[in-house]
Structures are given as C-alpha cells and as structure tokens.
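tool=predict chain=A
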Amino acid sequence: MEYTFLATAAFGLEGVVAGELKRMGIPAKAEQGCARFVGDLKDAYRANLLLRTADRVLLCLCEREIFTFEDLYQMIGSIPWEQYLAPDAMIHVSGKCVRSQLMSIRDCQAVGKKAIVARLQQKLRISRLPETGAHCPIEIAIVKNIARVTLDMSGEALNRRGYRTWNGEAPLRETLAAALVELSPWRVGMRLYDPCCGTGTLLIEAALKATARPAGLNRSFACEEFSFMPKAELAAIRAQEAEKATPDAAFSIGGSDLNPEALKLANRHIEQAGFQGKIVPKLQDLRTLTLTGEPGVFLLNPPYGERLGDQKEARALYQELGLLLKRHPGWRMGVITSDFAFERYFGRRAIQKRRLYNGRLECEFCVY
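tool=predict ok
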C-alpha cells in the first residue's frame, strides 16, 4: 500500500532533500517547507534512516480546505485512526495556524484530540483510552484555510544523530552542516578542511558521507514503535543499509580552531561519531594557516558578528579568509554567513550564492 509522506526541511533546502530522496530511488517533489513523496512504509523508514538534510518525515493523513471547527472535527474524524493508533497509544496533538479562519492553535488541538478519541472509542468499542503505550505525535497545520493532518514518523528531529551531546556557542545544526557539505564543491575522495571547525559538526557530516554511513544509524525513530509498521522488515532494512557503509574508507578531512574549549568538544563528538584518530582538529590561527599537498575545499561556518564577537572582528576575519584562499592556489571555498557585505570584505565576488537559514538567521552560502 502506498502513502503520501512529507520530508520537512529548512527554507532553501527543500530541493536538496528532494534530490536525496531521488538518489534513494524515491521520486519526490520539492514544496515550500518540505519534499513530498509517495511510497510504502518501508520507504518512509529508509527516508528516516538515510536522509541527511531533512528535519522530519511525516505521514500525511489528510489535506482539506476548512473554515469552521465543525469542518475540522469532521475532517479529523474521517481519518481511519484505528489503522494507525494502537488502543493504548499516547496521543499528542500539536498545531499551527497561519492566515486562516481558524487561528486558535489551542482550540484546534482540543477539537482534533476530541475527534481522534471519539473515532477510536467508536471503532474499537472502548469507553476509555489509557494512553500508556507508544508516543504518537500528530500535527494539525492550517495554512490559508488548508488543513493538513500528519503523523510524525521520526520522533526526535533528524538532526539528532546521536554523536553530539555537548554544544558550544552558536552550534551548527547537523542537517544544515550536511546540506553545506552537499552544496559545496567538495566530493567524496577530495580533501576537505574547516579552519573554523568549532565543535566539529561540518567535519563529522563530511566523514559520514565519505564512509556512506546512514545518518540515522545510531538512533531510533518514533515509527519503530507504531503498531502498523512491519517491525521485522524495518530491522532488515537497518541491517542492509548498515552493510553498505564503508567505515574503513580512507578520507582526508581536517580542521582547526582558535578556541581550545570548542576543540575539546570537537574531539568528544568525533570520538562519539566513531572517527577518533581519523579526524584530528588542531589549535591553529587561520591567519597563519598554510596547508601543503594537493588542493581541496575549505568549508566553514565562521563567526557572524551577531552571536559570537562583534561585527568589526567578524569582518576582519572575512578579509583573512580571502587571504587564506589566495595562499592556497587551486583550493576552493564554501562559506555560510549572515553578513550580506561578506563579499566586500572577503575581496572577491562569489561564483555561486544560495539563500539559507541558520536557525532564524537569514544567511548566504557563498562558493569561491
């Protein structure tokens, strides 16, 4: 049986997520805020396990135009919840309302929960739902009077890979780091260096790609506890995808930073990700950094002057990045920044630019 799924993504990354799904053999279409795909339950599980740049995988249960709470109640009550939720399921309903007739999120949540409970009580012929079983996160999203009801197949957001248990200042989310690796000129087999490596997220995401390790291999997903999921087949899929990984693959990925505390965290994360000894970040000022050997790609998320330090210091650093690239003929560079004057201080125009968001900060990813 086929279902409709949404792989949600940060603004600007919808096409990247759709591209990932297509390379997995799953046709997908980029939409605002997500990539939509049709497939079976095993496809949804593979998406959770393999996607590097998506935030969550949602099972889309219903989409319809509504204007009143009665419309909402009838819509949600028409969904065959008895097929998706066990009698003891722990039902958690969240919501969002944007430019619609119904704008009270709390009331929408209450109406939605009431409709789900009424349907289950009627179909299962029970008077009470204990809600002691698996957590089932359900979202009601109403945008311009179009209501969409989804069941979260991921649970914790997909950026929670399991290797980062300590955060430094202004951490780069794993999914955005993976997207920068994907959008950069770097390809598996090439040399990569991050001269502002911080707690090591970019380095680890590149190494995960270099070794073909599934992004979600070391974590679980909410759908693994759902009663309608084929659990034996899910275990087989996880084992098959794990076998495709090449943990002994050689790669040249390195980095450095001026902050010794950040490097301590980087080394912890690298160890937890299983790359101890393969990625060795160093204490190094990029102003004096000179690398020898074959050219590669500098990929970095430098301070923006908004959350770390001030703008004057950040712009002085951007000038140094321009000089760093000049000192390394044949190298290329990818930089994400929220300072739209970055090119002026860097000293060159980017050959490619892409608008992205780092959290709530509007940024540009510049490639040189």
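The mean pLDDT is 95. The chain has two domains: 3-152, 174-211+246-367.
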